[in-house]
């Protein structure tokens, strides 16, 4: 009976470790594809022209023309850079057809007080052309890390990982889930050290290998213990 219980526990642990390994394996494939898209997106610059951002490949570098709305900006909270807390600045860009594209102008440091927000004002509202990468809105991964912009707050509105619908509600105009990560060389921005999303794909691969090693180790340990018990149970010669 003891041997059967040990065998069942070993099989359960082994199955769990194998499953976790394949979970990390699939995460490695997804992360590797995302990092590859990020690298290839900088190869060419395409004019966005009349296309919607969702019609362009993720992380593709594009140029877009319009007018920046410095009166209605968002500060995305809980964004850090090199360990320092701060915000990312989202500024609406109204295109020629009236569509609004949110421009991520980069990271600004926390001032030390929630009552004193960073100064992200813009100059004259003149037509301009910007370049950057098409990306998704930042995601917290956990619902508890989100906070929609509040109607009663003044502009710029502080928000934490909002949805496109929440931003559209605050602006009272339709807004898509895709934004533009402003190129580092463009004026009117802040810290723009854009990186591929998530952790390195190789870390996911290493985690997968570790889980599979645990599966193999559990079988080896169970086998060794079983052999020792059998030897100990043998009657003396």
Number of strands: 8
Fraction of residues in H or I helices? 25-40%
Q: What order do the helices and strands follow? A: HEEEEEEEHEH
Instruction: Outline the biggest β-sheet.
Output: 5 strands, mixed, barrel
Low-confidence stretches: none
How would you characterize this protein structure?
The protein has 237 residues and is of the alpha/beta class. The protein has two domains: 2-32 and 201-233; 44-182, no CATH class. The protein is 34% helix and 25% strand. The protein is built from three helices and eight strands. It has helices at residues 2-41, 164-171, 201-233, and strands spanning 45-47, 61-68, 74-81, 84-94, 100-109, 128-136, 157-159, 175-182. Strand 3 (74-81) and strand 4 (84-94) form a beta hairpin. Helix 1 (2-41) runs antiparallel to helix 3. The protein is elongated.
Notable traits:
alpha/beta; elongated; single chain; 5-stranded mixed barrel; 237 residues
């Amino acid at each position: 009976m003891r041997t059967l219980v040990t065998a069942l526990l070993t099989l359960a642990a082994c199955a769990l470790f194998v499953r976790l390994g394949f979970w990390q394996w699939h995460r490695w494939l997804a992360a590797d594809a995302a990092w590859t898209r990020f690298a290839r997106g900088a190869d060419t610059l395409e004019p966005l022209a009349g296309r919607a951002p969702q019609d362009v490949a993720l992380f593709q570098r594009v140029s877009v023309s319009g007018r920046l709305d410095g009166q209605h900006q968002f500060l995305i909270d809980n964004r850090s850079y090199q360990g320092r807390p701060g915000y990312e600045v989202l500024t609406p860009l109204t295109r020629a057809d009236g569509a609004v594209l949110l421009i991520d102008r980069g990271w600004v440091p926390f001032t030390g007080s929630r009552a004193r927000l960073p100064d992200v004002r813009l100059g004259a509202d003149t037509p301009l052309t910007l370049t950057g990468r098409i990306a998704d809105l930042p995601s917290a991964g956990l619902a508890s890390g989100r906070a929609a912009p509040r109607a009663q707050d003044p502009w710029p509105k502080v928000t934490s990982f909002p949805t496109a619908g929440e931003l559209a509600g605050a602006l009272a105009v339709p807004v898509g889930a895709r934004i533009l990560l402003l190129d580092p060389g463009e004026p009117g921005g802040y810290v723009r050290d854009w990186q591929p999303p998530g952790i390195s794909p190789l870390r996911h691969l290493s985690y997968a290998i570790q889980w599979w090693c645990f599966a193999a180790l559990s079988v080896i340990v169970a086998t060794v213990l079983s052999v020792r018990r059998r030897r100990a149970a043998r009657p003396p010669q």
